């Protein structure tokens, strides 16, 4: 019974890692689409929402089944709690990637390259945060996790900068308003992804160390 439980738990971990990579790729590809205004790629990302939902449902059902069947305790319950949070967070990451892709589909070619570049830098930060969190889960090492707070500060600063630039362009010409509102929306989606990366890092730290920390 004990061996079977850990075999199924290891399988569940692999599913979460697979989902994490899928969600990160959705976000990464949506940002590539934004940078190049590639509407075909944006549409491809948008259509991945069904597979994302399948991952979420499958992991949720398997997590509940393992909890009910084996009633784990101590370190094992921390692992399952972590998996449950990661399932929710990576689902949200993918959904935010889908939302960015949807905005790209409606955007006209952007003349505001400074803002696009800032959004891409912001995206690079949150993707780095997600990868560090996922690496911590895979390796069960916590050395990179607390560094996410510094990257999150960078994300927050970039979001503020994008907001200021967007307001400036809107004041210059009312024709810029709709596009700049969408830039602000993209930055908001990315900021939420950064929050989910921090939340996962907290759960992973607790899973490994048995201690709670706050990363923000």
Automatic annotation (TrEMBL):
One of its GO terms (biological process) is negative regulation of phosphate metabolic process. It is found in: Cytoplasm. This is Phosphate-specific transport system accessory protein PhoU. Residues 17-104, 120-203 form the PhoU domain. One of its GO terms (cellular component) is cytoplasm. SUPFAM superfamilies: PhoU-like (SSF109755). Pfam families: PhoU. The keyword Cytoplasm applies. Transmembrane segments: none annotated.
């Amino acid at each position: 019974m004990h061996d079977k439980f850990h075999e199924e738990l290891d399988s569940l971990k692999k599913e979460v890692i697979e989902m994490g990579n899928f969600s990160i790729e959705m976000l990464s590809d949506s940002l590539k689409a934004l940078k190049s205004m590639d509407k075909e790629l944006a549409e491809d990302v948008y259509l991945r929402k069904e597979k994302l939902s399948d991952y979420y449902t499958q992991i949720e059902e398997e997590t509940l089944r393992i909890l009910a069947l084996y009633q784990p305790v101590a370190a094992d319950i921390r692992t399952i709690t972590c998996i449950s949070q990661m399932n929710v967070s990576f689902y949200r990451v993918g959904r935010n990637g889908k939302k960015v892709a949807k905005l790209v589909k409606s955007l006209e070619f952007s003349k505001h390259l400074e803002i696009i570049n800032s959004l891409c830098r912001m995206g690079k930060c949150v993707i780095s945060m997600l990868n560090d969190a996922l690496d911590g889960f895979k390796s069960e090492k916590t050395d990179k996790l607390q560094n996410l707070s510094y990257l999150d500060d960078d994300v927050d600063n970039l979001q503020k900068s994008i907001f200021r630039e967007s307001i400036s362009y809107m004041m210059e010409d009312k024709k810029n308003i709709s596009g700049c509102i969408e830039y602000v929306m993209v930055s908001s989606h990315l900021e939420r992804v950064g929050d989910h990366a921090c939340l996962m890092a907290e759960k992973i730290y607790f899973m490994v160390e048995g201690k709670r920390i706050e990363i923000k």
